[in-house]
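RETRY 2/3 - previous attempt timed out on the joint model. Re-submitting the same 859-residue input unchanged.
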Amino acid sequence: MLENPLVEGLERLPVHPTSLVIFGATGDLSHRKILPAIYNLAHEGALPERFNLVGTARSAMSDEQFREMVARAIREFSRRPPDPQVLERLLEASSYVPGAVDEDALYDALQGVLTEFEEEAGRRLNRCFYMATAPRFFAVIVRQLGNHGLEHHEDAEVRVVIEKPFGTSLAEAEQLNRELLSVFEERQVFRIDHYLGKETVQNLLAFRFANGMFEPWWNRNFIDNVQITAAEDVGVGSRAEYYDKVGALRDLIQNHMLQLLCHVAMEPPVDFSADEVRNEKVKVLRGIPTPTPEDVPKIAVRAQYGPGTVGGEAVPGYVEEPGVRPDSTIETFTALRLEIDSWRWAGVPFYLRTGKRLPRKVTEIAVMLKPVPHLGFSQEGSIGVRPNVLVLTIQPNEGVSMSLAAKIPGTRMRIRPVNMEFLYGTSFLSQSPEAYERLILDVMRGDATLFTRNDEVEEQWRVCDPIVHTWEQMPGPLPQYPAGSQGPPEANQLMTPEESWRRI
Amino acid sequence: MTPATGFRHVVWTAQGTTPAEIEAALRRLLVEGQTQVAGYAPARALNMVCIVDKDAAKEVSARLQGAGRYLASRTIICSVERGRDRIDAMAEISSDTPSGPGEFALVRELVTLEVGDQHLPRLEPIVDPLVMTDLPTVLWSPSNIDEGIRALMPLSQVVLMDSVDDSDLAGGLRRARDLLESAYVVDLAWLRSTPWRERVAATFDPPNLRPDLHAITSVTVRHHPESAVAGLLLIGWLGSRLGWKLKKLDTQNGELAGSARAGRRDVQLLLEHAPQEVRGLAGLTLETATGRRLSLDRGPGGLHAHYVNDRGDEREWTVLGASRGEGGILGEGIRQALLRDPTYAPAASSANQLV
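RETRY 2/3 succeeded.
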């Protein structure tokens, strides 16, 4: 194929003209994330030169009403105030097709609209089908797309985007993968884990693989344990109905936190192509032994928040929250102790912890180093030498902090820990795009590096599924922790006496 | 990690000072700032040195403020006053306080030096102690103070310029060519053409249209009357990427016209004035021997595209995108100091052949 010599040096490579269909276009995800992301791509001139947006949902609505809804969502949730002219042009390229996802008429109508766009453009357009619906509709939509021949388009690409959760168990994930791959090829499927679209998470790879200073000690010989925390200070809020079915393990650990673990533990990929990166992540997941029912109490702790105080305000316990079943045994806190069977990581525990109503919102990875083998001076009269800790903060303030031992000024050799902190935001010159902007653009480009592959998602479930099943067999009530506290004391039992959780 | 609350603003000023005193003051200010927020260490990525006439110093400061978040970590403004024999200085360190989760805390260090024209030949030893070692330094002289630029080139890896600033059409391009011999050049005129280059590249990106790049028969560029250089750079880019042999264009009624040789074919070239307020390009039309014609013109909400295919079918649409404004262009120029675009130097070299 003849090269295009004009793309050399361009930061933004051409994206093939595309029609994007959003299933569930009237929903919360669409309003808060997808539509604002599309607007910001338009604002920056990053959308393909020919771009059409089609929203679909059950609600009866005209194109005009849909455009008003899109404009409202963008005005409310875009990271920048919309430019009226760009917004107007984007709305002109937007249309709405009402219908139920199981009805043939919807897909006939979509086919018609998509064909019209191509007639107007005078060329074939790529097609992206974005499933922003409730998960129970994913398989139905996939089947219907296949039944109506929308899974393939001669001389153009068809891609399908699946939001999380990708199943609620290994069996469901496998079944959904079977459904998907009976209609689409894997290269057409983009499973979103929006954490991967965050600049901060991508920076983990840059941090590890573009800096030679870490690799020599990034292994079992120097690292004592790794603690990954995703803490929230809020309760379940408006997500109660969903959350009370899934809980903390399935909501955060099965996807986001295992992704973070993979980024910490993976070997350097040969290159940063989709398959090379994902191959390395899958290797990490395969190295985690499948928990047996007997293992579960030793490696996993769950709990629910009770009433307490957060930010000086009294808040109710989980089961008193609106929309939560009073006898719910769904966990709002999960802590895991995982190990990875590999030369690099054998014997190094990876502690994962997530919970709601903890003291503050923070997502971080703490790499706890082993203590120095010998101290040549006394620690008398000081708090003493502590092992170094490298903390990679993902949010809210992306950065790196390293605790070091330093001498306390004075005539005696007394040591105290000091922190060397680095905030990425202070050094970089531009505002980071939202995760969804990057991910939607990658879908249109066909770059799956930041999306979860079928084997990856199944490996994630292989690790989490036995824990879910074992917990389902265990009656409540769950251990409680006061809202605003560090979590349940039971989480400490996962650790050795020498280890302790970092304070949140 | 302790959340950064950020120190606000610490300032030091002195009259009749020396580089050593200013450097010591910067270190003291940093300690002072860090004392306010213990454990806070700024990370730095880029030095920027601006040399401006004293009369233009305020305007340049305003332009830098207009660049918003896109600022160098440490900026040193040398404000040059004719006849001044004393160096006065003001050093400031400031930080935005993060306002919520995910917000960045920008730490900015700004040194303003008031120097005389007699200091220009020895500006390097004055500025050198003030730039952060090991960081790239970008040099910007919107007033084109050549003596100062020459003096500071040894400590600069990148020069920021705007080739449309020169009143002489060929002057800006010659300046770019000369600077390219010793530094990486970020040309704001080039950055204004980025959306245009992206769109031309995208139009011919489908594999079936790529052969048409070698069948282009005419290029017409419409531009702000003072931005002919931007048009020349765009044609220079096409010429350098597509292997055209370029030669000097003729002036006709103040506009430029001529041709290039593309293999055995001629490519007609025309630069037309367009009435628009903003600097830079106003439109572009490409025609091919296969009968295709693409026009892009500034329009509301983006670039208005008009395309005629080889069967004569016409299509019109808008390529979405907001104008970045001059502040955005300058900010992008500062950001580009950390990147490398291998196509600018060949494009500038080709554009030089057109004048």
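The longest strand of chain B covers residues 107-116. Closing ticket.
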